[in-house]
Design goal:
The structure holds 2 protein chains of 2 kinds. By secondary structure, chain A is an alpha+beta fold. Chain A has a single domain, classed as CheC-like (Chemotaxis protein chec). Chain A is 25% helix and 24% strand. Chain A is built from 3 helices and 7 strands; from the N terminus they run αβββααββββ. In chain A, strands 1, 2, 3, 4, 5, 6 and 7 form a 7-stranded antiparallel β-sheet that branches. In chain A, β2 and β3 form a beta hairpin. In chain A, α2 packs across α3. In chain B, α3 links the parallel β3 and β4. The model of chain B has no long low-confidence stretch (mean pLDDT 95). Classes of the chains: A alpha+beta, B alpha/beta.
Chain lengths: 188, 120
């Protein structure tokens, strides 16, 4: 399998806004198609080489999901959310663990797998942002599909179907005062 | 030959090891560590021929791990396997003494190209 290079940033990042407001509009550096491409390459590399992620439009049914969040701090702070429908998250984990894994994956394994996929998305989104940005560790919780960055109207979200399972990725502006995610040190 | 794989994600360690095998390095022994601090102790105990480390980890990050290793006088070949592959990160990695930085997502071909000079 040959990895497909991710797109590079082609537009300037917006200037900073006053404290308390969103400081960057994610749509200024990434669009839905790019997000679907990021998801597809990530899935093809780590989960399912033969995968087809079909974009889903319109209202999304909320279903129980594993939700990973990761933040990028810096001149253009954003928060990235990846939600994978619960049953799909278990299958993702089994496929990432691969042959040799025994028994059903634990919830810790599932959190690890979905968190790592969000980390890959975050790392590649970070490459589109100004130098000096830092990436947090992922925070994984139980949630529902449809929760990715739909809170403030400044998010770019992509919803796809991986077989019968919904997968959603969203990038939203990090707002001052939002609870910080865990950072693991200055060097990200 | 022995390779130390350092990553706080168990599933990613398995994927890295699997990709290592797919890249043709079937015979190497693999030791795993789950963060930079664990990696430092495993280097002493296991004396690997190559270290493959994630960057973004709790306790001791990959770059802190590498800097500590070199500060102690250890020159074991070191490469990053990380989700971030910006020029800024590559320059930091090279300045600290890393041989290469493989960005996720990666392919077995990428592994073969980067690791062959060390493992063959």
């Amino acid at each position: 399998m040959t990895a497909v290079p991710f797109p590079q940033r082609t537009q300037p990042i917006e200037e900073s806004a006053p404290i308390g407001q969103a400081v960057v509009d994610p749509s200024s550096f990434v669009d839905v198609d790019t997000l679907v491409e990021l998801l597809t390459v990530t899935w093809a590399t780590f989960v399912d080489p033969e995968c087809y992620l079909a974009p889903v439009d319109g209202l999304i049914e909320r279903r129980p999901a594993v939700v990973a969040e990761i933040a990028i701090a810096g001149d253009a702070p954003v928060r990235i959310t990846l939600s994978v429908e619960q049953a799909g998250a278990v299958l993702v984990t089994e496929m990432m663990l691969g042959e040799g894994a025994y028994g059903a994956p634990t919830q810790l394994d599932v959190s690890d797998a979905i968190g790592e996929l969000s980390n890959v998305l975050g790392g590649n989104i970070k490459a589109l942002l100004p130098d000096g940005s830092t990436l947090t560790l992922p925070n994984v919780t139980a949630g529902s599909t449809g929760t990715a960055g739909d809170n403030d109207g400044t998010a770019v979200t992509a919803t796809v179907a991986w077989g019968p399972y919904l997968v959603m990725a969203g990038i939203s502006a990090e707002v001052a005062g939002q609870l910080p995610l865990t950072a693991s040190g200055a060097a990200r | 030959m022995k390779v130390l794989v350092v990553d706080d994600s168990k599933v990613m360690r398995k994927i890295v090891v699997r990709t290592l095998r797919q890249a043709g390095f079937d015979e190497v022994d693999v030791v795993e560590a789950d963060d930079g601090a664990d990696g430092l102790s495993k280097v002493t105990a296991e004396r690997p021929d190559l270290i493959l480390s994630d960057w973004n980890m709790p306790n001791l990050t990959g770059i802190e791990f590498l800097v500590s290793l070199r500060a102690s006088g250890n020159a074991t070949p070191f490469g990053f396997v990380t989700s971030e592959g910006s020029n800024e990160m590559r320059e930091r990695a090279a300045a600290a003494g890393a041989l290469f930085l493989i960005a996720k997502p990666f392919s077995s071909e990428t592994f073969a190209d980067a690791l062959s000079p060390v493992l063959t």
